[in-house]
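[job 4471] stage=fold_predict status=RUNNING
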Amino acid sequence: MAVFLAGFTGILGRLITLNEALLVWYRLLITVLTLWVLYLLQRKFHRVSLAGVARIMGVGVIVALHWVTFYGSIKYANISVGLVCFSATGFFTAILEPLITRKPFNKNELLLGLMVMVGIYLIFHFDPQFKTGIILGIISALFGSLFPVFNRLLVQEHKPETVTLYELSGGFLFLTILLPFYLHYIPADHLFPTIADMGWLLVLGWFCTVWAFNLSMTALKKISAFTVNLTYNLEPIYGIALAFIVYREDKLLSGMFYIGLLLILLSVFLQTGLVYRKHRATGNK
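[job 4471] inference complete, writing structure tokens
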């Protein structure tokens, strides 16, 4: 369900006319205000030590940077390219998760992640007009691979609601400090959302952030960060399909784009098969 909701974020990133940094700032503003009100009313707010708050908010900084570069990728290239680059999170997670958690590397995860990178390379090599967007997309994937790894550690100590609340609050505070400098070097056409922008921002904040974030945090209690990230590779399927229907992006993409996309989809299906076999071998259903 979280992946399905995430599939709409690319479309919303193009529908909203604000630049990438302002878009994320408003998204976080709506999300953080909503979460504080909901959790206080539902008494889901739990106190955390100052050191714990600092660690959780630090991960929120990574989330904010991931979103800014993700929407930058969409605005400098297009929805399809931005979503395909997001799939590189599997490759980065296969490398970074063992380093952070001090577990042995998984050869299958590395090979499947590498397959995704080959797919992205084919798109990058044969569609140079998307160069800036692809670079931003890969940076976004790097940030995107980090926060599920840290989140998996955090949800072992704290409730998912607490982690989500402090994490997104930390991302909002960080971006509030960064925004004046960002807008100085990359000026925006306008600072305030239009009426249409505001409606799409509410959809993005309430459904694609608050709800989707809690679903993915709960999933991390049961499955590895790599599996979560690789499952999120299904996001391009929904997002690209919508981009083809709404914006006819299929007319802008070369044949090599589809070859790269097929490699990425193949990695998802192979990982699904490996996870299923592993669960059967251990007696899980």
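[job 4471] summary: The chain has 13 helices and no strands.
[job 4471] exit 0
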